[in-house]
Amino acid sequence: MTVITQKFTLEDYLAYDDGTETRYELVDGELIAMPTESPINNRIAIYLLTEFAKIISFKLICHKDTELVVSSNRVRLPDLMILSEELLTQIGGKRATITTEMSSPVLVVEVVSPGKRNQDRDYRYKRSEYATRGISEYWIIDPEKEQVNLLILVDGFYEETILKNSQPIVSSNFPDLSLTPENIFNATK
C-alpha cells in the first residue's frame, strides 16, 4: 500500500491528480493508494450491484467510483454505495464526491480484504466514520469468514447483526431485497 507523505487538506485531495489511474483515500491528511481488489472482492461487489439493480434504479448504485467525505481530513472509496434520489441530485453530474454538506448515502457496503490492516479499516475505523456521517445502513461483507455484518444506525450508533449461511439479510432500507450470505458467497466462488 503506497502512502504519499505530504500532508493534504481536503481541498488538496480534491484537486490532486498524479496522472495515473491510482485511486486514493485521504486518511488524516495522508493519501493512501488503494490496492487492486482481489477477484473475489470484485465479484462480490458486482454481484450485489446486480441484485440491487433488480429492485432500484441503476443510477442510484455506485460501484467503487464515488468518494465519500466522512470528515474534514478523511475521504473513503466504498466498494458499493446506494444513493437516495436527493443525493443523486446533489451530486448533479459533477465529480463523484459526496461532501459533508450533502445527504448521506442510504447504504454503504465494504468487502473486507485479507489482513489485519484491512480488517481494522472496515470493522473499526469505517464503522465509526460511517456512523458519525449518519449512514443509516452499513454492510461488512467478509469473504474469509463467509459472513455479513449488517449494521443499522440507531441513535448515532450501529446495532450489529452477524449473518451466516442461509440467514436472510433483512435490510431496513430495502425490504424487497431477498438475499442471504450463502447467496453471495455461492454466486461468487
From TrEMBL:
InterPro entries (UniProt xref): Nuclease_put_TT1808 (IPR012296), Restrct_endonuc-II-like (IPR011335), Uma2 (IPR008538)
Putative restriction endonuclease domain sequence ranges: 10-180
Coiled coil ranges: none
Family matches, as Pfam families: Uma2
Domain of life of the native organism: Bacteria
UniProt-recorded name of the protein: Putative restriction endonuclease domain-containing protein
Biological classification of the source: Bacteria, Bacillati, Cyanobacteriota, Cyanophyceae, Oscillatoriophycideae
